[in-house]
Request: fold
Amino acid sequence: MADFAMPQRVLPMTGFHGGSSVVRLEPAAPAGRISLRAKAEDVSALSGSLGVDLPTRPKTSASANGRTALWLGPDEWLLIDESESGLMTAAANSGVLHSATDVSHRNTAILISGPGAEAAINTGCPQDLSLSVFPVGACSRTLFGKVEVVLLRTGEEAFRMEVWRSFSDYAFGLLSEGAKDAAL
Reply:
């Protein structure tokens, strides 16, 4: 009997690393993700079940137990679990009405860090990323070039850019060009 090769999933941006003397670019490790929608009165129950407080103010995020919750709208969050451990099950166990969609294989992330990180991102994003306006923990859904992304500030000189896999090469390429420009 012939041996058949099993297809292997290749992670997006495999082998991609880049940047410049002032910006480091790298693909983030795989993570579990859900897009969550719920009413305000159900936030507390979902927060308890998920193990992280869902933020209720615009442009804010919260982290706990290896999970990060990003506020995207009055009733919408993106949850990221670095350990890929059961976000859907946790949400289902909340006992409240909500909508949760697993987007783990739709999204990927790019980590941008260094003193030129803001400038590299501003190559394709007009949003003010200064610390006074976009502090550590701030997040927003915005445009980067021609694609929608979710941007999270993880440190004074560090960001996480969530992007759909199908646009990740484009976003990484545009960030690479921005990183070169930031070094000039």
